[in-house]
Amino acid sequence: MDDTRFTQDPPNPDAAASADVPSRRRVLALGAVTAGAVMSIRPALAQTAGSVLNCEIPVPDASRAGSYIDADGKVVPARTRGAFPSSPRPFKGEEVKRAMANGSTLPGTDSERSRAYVKYIRRLQRGQGGFTCFASLQMPRG
Fold it and tell me: For 1-142, where are the alpha helices, taking DSSP H only?
């Protein structure tokens, strides 16, 4: 007779299932790691949102400084009749976002000039100064 058969423990069907279930210690460790990641990501997102509002958009960009902006937001030669001189300073992302959202005027401008500048900003293309800032303003925030 073979004695080895009786000395081994009978197979436990719950043993295989428990191998797939993580232990309490493992679950707690994963929770701690996840919480740490969330705590480090949230400030980064807040910082990103803050930096978006502080980024700057020159009107027009540096390559066309000295040019004017017409009522449609197009860059035109200096002293073009009916067009507006370039802004003496770049606008902060927060200022642009506010002007685009509720129609308020950009700082240091009247309503017509502000509308022309906002139209210029909306027309920005990749590679132009201020485009990255403008694109960041368009991204939804969570």
Answer: 4-7, 13-20, 24-54, 93-102, 111-122, 131-138
DSSP-derived secondary structure letter, 84: E
In the chain (142 residues long), the average pLDDT of successive 10-residue segments reads 55 57 70 54 49 87 93 97 96 94 94 97 94 87 58
91, 106 in Cβ contact below 8 A? yes
Cα dihedral 27/28/29/31 (nearest 10): 90
pTM: 0.65
Residue 92: phi and psi, rounded to 5, are -75, 150
